[in-house]
Every structure is written in structure tokens, then in C-alpha cells.
Amino acid sequence: MVSPAPKTYDAIVVGAGFAGLYAVHVLRDKRNLDVVAFDAAGDVGGTWYWNRYPGARVDIESVHYSYSFDEDLQQEWHWSERFPAQAEILSYLDHVADRFDLRRSIRFNTRITALTWDDEESLWTATTGAGQTCRARFVVSAAGTLSVPKRPDFPGVEDFAGEVLLTGNWPHHEVSFAGTRVGIIGVGSSGIQAISEIAKTAGELTVLQRTPNYATPIGNYPTDPEEERAEKADYAAIREASRNHFLGVPYSEVRPSAVAATPEQRRQVFDDRWNRGGFRLFIDSFGDILFDKAANDTIAQYIRERIHERVHDKATADLLAPEGYPYGTKRPPLETDYYESYNRPNVSLVDVKSNPIDAVTPAGVRLADGTEHHFDVLILATGFDACTGPLLAMNITGRGGLRLADHWSDGPQTYLGLMAAGFPNLFMITGPQSPSVLYNMPLAIEDHVDFSVAAMDHLRATGRDVIEPTPQAEKDWVAHTNELAQATLLPDSPTSWYMGDNIPGKPRRVLVYLGGAPAYRAKCDEIVAAGYEGFALS
Ligand code: N01
């Protein structure tokens, strides 16, 4: 039997989280293009579909961490808390999918396993896990930045007699920890949120910590109706202020320099931002914290002192208080009662830096010195192959058989963190070397989708089919992003997913654009105004 020719769409979207949903909406409903989207998940949600672990919640206020593209949507939706939990964000995305009738364009439970560019036809072919194919002029990767979980290959993990759970791919059923011995590896944002929640119910919870983190209070509270009314009345101005802020939130009280302030002034600012919570301490206290080691030392010391105030046992507090690396060079987690968890009799902390994990055994985890910790459940909160991982997982081949994996063997090479030379018409929403994770994600996504769709409009208007960066523009962008990173303290970080080296064998390269969202947006506007400078159009 002859298999039918693969269908050719105008655009293929990979992913059905915040980015994929918006891309489908704009391409299909605003541009009337023939679009198909794919997602490996069973439904919409992306990150918020997979990360269902106890305690999972957003850490940018949802009044800001939400779509801005539709005034009615932002007026009608009500968030119950300042920083809502995963289930509520998933309901929001579910509502968006219904409201704009997006599901009819999405194939769920379908993973894209290959994307291949056809030079002659100027078309992409997408292959699914089931071996089906379809084609399109454009591909929009909405595959996410933190969507490929890292599962360390501890020897023996397959022989563990209990259950192994991954925060980044959590079961859909309720997991009860009552009366069980739980071990958790990892104290990044996921681990810290999960530990704070699981500590309340577990029989025993043992935290296996390698590098302590500078976690600070999230400051969550139920939505205040007055505050909500005021925000909704002024939403356009709030979004504008967000887009003009380095991190994409409308914070506006940053002082220029921690080192120029007196110790009393510093303390007053740090206390104020600490008490108000969110990313204020990180991004709205002093402007030199991420750039000047002496400034950074002041905030690092402040956080260490606050940890010591909250943790009763001095030896535990010493282990929890980070030393030897600057605050903010690992992505700062936000927490609720995380440090107080260690004051509970059922919670203990084990240092696996000085005494590393040797193997997982049928009964638990064995450390290098031979001590063994016994668990019924082992939770891996061990992070993600960030930024490049989701793209490389799609097995992308561009012009002349060039594999993205080869093009990026020494780290990502992109122009604007959005396209790569040799990979025409492939738009990487919040790709590596864009502000992505250092910008409020829904806004970063909208900006990138809008840029991509405007580029398609421009091609159509000028009678062309293909857009791709020039190798020189790509080279210059890579140099520019590296130079920006060098001006910060990021290169002084220990192992971190910001730098990619949390994954064994992945080159240590900065994966984010550190010039801030406003500078990035201005650069994009400049490039468009100059007739897509740095891009070859054909
Ligand atoms: O991952 P991580 P995450 N042996 O990479 C440890 C976003 N997010 O999933 O630091 C022992 O930060 C590792 O130790 P070390 C947010 O952007 C947001 O927590 O490498 N330990 C570290 O402690 C966040 O930054 C929210 O020494 C091992 C941990 O595992 C990003 O996702 C919530 C190990 C991994 O921390 C990733 O966070 C959750 C090993 N072999 C996530 N391998 C919000 O609040 C790894 N570790 C919105």
C-alpha cells in the first residue's frame, strides 16, 4: 500500500504550554494560517502539566506571570493568590485553550522526534514518535526551556525497591507520604518547594543536599480584592512597566549601589524587600548586586544571617547557609517556611557535597563513606537540561544535513536567541541567548512569538519564503551575549543550569542574555527597523 503524502501545513508548532498556545492562537486566528501543534503531554500546560509535585507554584506574581495579549482575558481571570499553585495555573491555561478553541489544532501524546529541513522545497518535515510525518514552511519551537528533566544516572537506581519520583515529571495521582521514609535529592527551586510541603506529612524526610541555595521568602498571600481592582483598572500601564523592566515585572524601587549605601541603609532596604517577598530582594534592592562582588557579599551575608535566625540547630543552619559563591549566580529560589522545615523532628539534612552519593541501593542511598539512608520513596529534584536540551531533543537537521547538535557542540550559537544560521524558518521561542528565564516568561513568549509572526508577515509582504540569520550576525550575537555575561558575576557561579554545566558533558556556556528585557526588545526593534538586519531573506 502506498502511504499518503505527508500533509503540508503553513506552520508547525511544537509544544502546548504558554508559548505553544499563544503561537497557535496568533498563527491560526490572527493570520489565518494552517497550523498544527504537537505536544508529548496528554493536554495543554507545558511546565504546568508536568511539574505537579507538592508545593509547585509560580514565583512571579500571576498578575504579571500571565498573558497580556487579550484585554478581556486578563480582565475576566481571577487569581486566588498572589503566587498561585500549579493547579491554578494549569486551570488558567485550560481556560485559555477553551476560550480560543485551541485544542482542535493540537495533537496530544505526540512527541516530535525529528525535524528536517528540505533545501530544495524550503520546507520542514516533522516526524512523530509513531513515525508519522508532516511538513510546513515554518516551525515554531515552543518546546520550553526547562522541559527536559535531568535524571542523574546513579548506579543502582533501577534496583531501588521503593518508588522513584521525578519533580519534573510527577505522577498525576495523589501521592501520600504519611508514615513513609522519603529521601529527596536536590535543593533548587523544585526541591525547596517540595521539601517545604512534604515535610508537613512525611513520616521522615531526609534532604540530600549538595550545594545550598540562597532561598528567600516568596511573600504569598490571598488576592486582595482592592489590589486586584486597582491592577485591572491599570493593566495596560502595568504591562508596559513590566516590559520596560530588566526582569519583566513592574518593580521600580531599585537603588543604584549596595556598596555606596551605609550599613544601616542597606539593612533597611534588605529588610523591606525581604519582608515584601518575591524577587524584590534579587532585582529591586540594589542595582550592583549581580555585577559587583563587594555588593553581592553584603546581600549574601544578609541572607546567611536570616537563615541562621530561622533554623534552630546551628550545625544544620551552617550547612544550609551558602558560602563561597555569589547570590543570584544560581537561580534564586523563593520559599515559604522552607528553613523552618528543618526545625521539625521528622526532617533531617545530609551533606552530599563532602560525602557524595555513591549509589542507590534497593533500600535507599549509599554515600561515599559507606553510610546508607533507607527510604520508601526517593524523589529526584535534580533539575533540567535547560535551554538547549528541549531543542536538541528534537533531533533537528538544517541546511545541507547540518545537525543542530553539531552546530551547538561547543555551546549554543544563535541570533537573538531566536534563530540559528543554517536552520531557516525555525523560530526558537525563548531560545538560548535570549532573555528567556531572566524575563517574565509569558511576556518573553509573547514578544518572541510576535517577532516570529511579524517576520513571516514581512516575508509574505516582500514575496519571499525564507528567513535565516547570517553566520556573521550569529557570531556577533554569541560574542555579545558572552561579553554581557562577563560583566556580571555569573561566570563565578558554581555548577548551574544557567551555565549548562549541571549536565555532565554539556559545555559551560552562559545560556541567557544578560542585558535585560528592555535592551533586548530595543535591539529587536532596531533590527526590524533596519530591514531585518543580520538576517538573509530569500
Ligand atoms: O533544578 P536545579 P530545579 N547529586 O538545577 C541537585 C525553575 N523552577 O528543578 O546545585 C546530588 O535548580 C543540584 O545540586 P548542585 C527555576 O527557574 C521554578 O530545582 O548541582 N545533587 C541542585 O540542588 C529553577 O531554577 C519554580 O550541587 C544533585 C538540584 O539537584 C529551575 O526551574 C519551581 C545531583 C537541582 O536544582 C530548575 O529548578 C521549580 C547529583 N548527581 C523550578 N544532580 C518556580 O518557583 C543535581 N543535583 C516558578
Automatic annotation (TrEMBL):
InterPro entries: FAD-binding_Monooxygenases, FAD/NAD-bd_sf, Flavin_mOase-like
Pfam family, one: FMO-like
Cofactor(s) listed: FAD
Tree of life domain: Bacteria
Keywords: FAD, Flavoprotein, Monooxygenase, NADP, Oxidoreductase
Protein family according to the UniProt entry: Belongs to the FAD-binding monooxygenase family.
Entry protein name: NAD(P)/FAD-dependent oxidoreductase
